[in-house]
Design brief:
alpha/beta, Trna Endonuclease, Chain: A, domain 1, 2 domains, six-stranded mixed β-sheet, four-stranded mixed β-sheet, 16 strands, 35% helix, 23% strand, globular
Length: 320
């Protein structure tokens, strides 16, 4: 049973919004941002592909939490997917990488050969094992009985070829690296391994509440990340058809470039503001970002949104 659905990561949404509004088109940082966006989108798509296989686990003994970020002083640790049963816990590390992938235990790394180009990556087993240790500590810190914790590294791209480096065999722990289509089979093996236990180790209801309460989304300024200024951002409501700036007419938006009209185009623009600028907005800031000349129109827009109103009189601001 999925108790925490996967949503597009905030940083993926931020990068997408930034690419739509970055000016000029030949901005020197556009290429780097585009590459980051492609990597984040591939990672998210890979995780969604694994979610498809996890969706077949409908038995109530399963509890699945996706994209979990938990506190671990002095920072946080993130788990792509966490599967829990009353008898064991299984953090899943997802990789979406194409090509021929060679795992080298001697150097604790794996390499990718794709379209004639070779690239090296950190050893995914070391990454997954570190998440396992963090999860163990999380149980101890929260004074919960620590269950047996297994882990899997799941490659979601069905066309990728997994190989061990010359002279090495797929012995533990490297047998924990699998393709996504084998995920349910590996979970069945774990069920058989731990299914003989009569008494449950994990209180799923209590653990679920703690995990959901302690989960924190990762938020940071995308402009600071790429050292950008507000002057690098295109203001205005962007046309859904041609991405040009629209004008506000009575009750709707009109694009002077392609004649497209919309009553709701401002909703995406306001979402872009929250993603790119900051999590709060005032009437004045809304007018400036949407290029609205009328305070009354911006007031009506703010009142129509499902935002939290904070403060009084001139100190009023709104947040999601």
């Amino acid at each position: 049973m999925i108790v925490k659905e996967r949503k597009p990561p905030t940083r993926l949404l931020q990068t997408d919004a930034l690419l739509k509004r970055l000016i000029p088109l030949n901005h020197p940082k556009r290429n780097a941002i585009e590459q980051d966006f492609k990597k984040r989108r591939a990672g998210y798509n890979g995780e969604k592909a694994v979610d498809y296989h996890l969706s077949f686990l409908t038995d109530k003994k399963y509890m699945i939490l996706n994209d979990l970020r938990l506190p671990m002083t002095p920072d946080f640790f993130q788990i792509d997917s966490l599967l829990m049963t009353p008898h064991y816990s299984l953090p899943i590390e997802v990789k979406n990488i194409a090509g021929t992938l060679t795992i080298d235990p001697e150097f604790n790394q794996f390499s990718q050969m794709y379209k004639g180009v070779e690239m090296g990556y950190p050893d995914p087993i070391s990454q997954a094992n570190r998440k396992k240790l963090f999860l163990q500590r999380w149980f101890y810190n929260n004074k919960l009985p620590c269950p047996p914790i297994e882990f899997l590294v799941v490659f979601s791209n069905p066309s990728s070829i997994l190989k061990m480096a010359h002279g090495h065999k797929r012995t533990p722990p490297y047998n924990k690296i699998i393709h996504a289509q084998n995920l349910v089979r590996e979970i069945s093996k774990l069920n058989a391994k731990y299914g003989k236990e009569e008494n449950p180790i994990i209180d799923l209801k209590k653990t679920k509440k703690l995990l959901l309460n302690q989960h924190q989304e990762h938020t940071s300024s995308i402009l600071e990340t790429y050292q950008l200024q507000l002057s690098d951002i295109k203001y205005g409501v962007l046309c859904e058809q041609c991405s040009q700036v629209m004008k506000r007419l009575t009750g709707h938006w009109h694009c002077p470039h392609c004649n497209h009209t919309s009553k709701t185009a401002h909703l995406q623009a306001i979402e872009d503001y929250f993603l790119l600028i900051k999590p709060t907005i005032t009437n004045r800031e809304l007018r400036e970002f949407l290029l609205l000349p009328s305070r009354r129109t911006s007031t009506l827009i703010l009142q129509s949104l499902d935002l939290t109103r904070i403060g009084l009189n001139r100190g009023v601001y709104y947040m999601k």
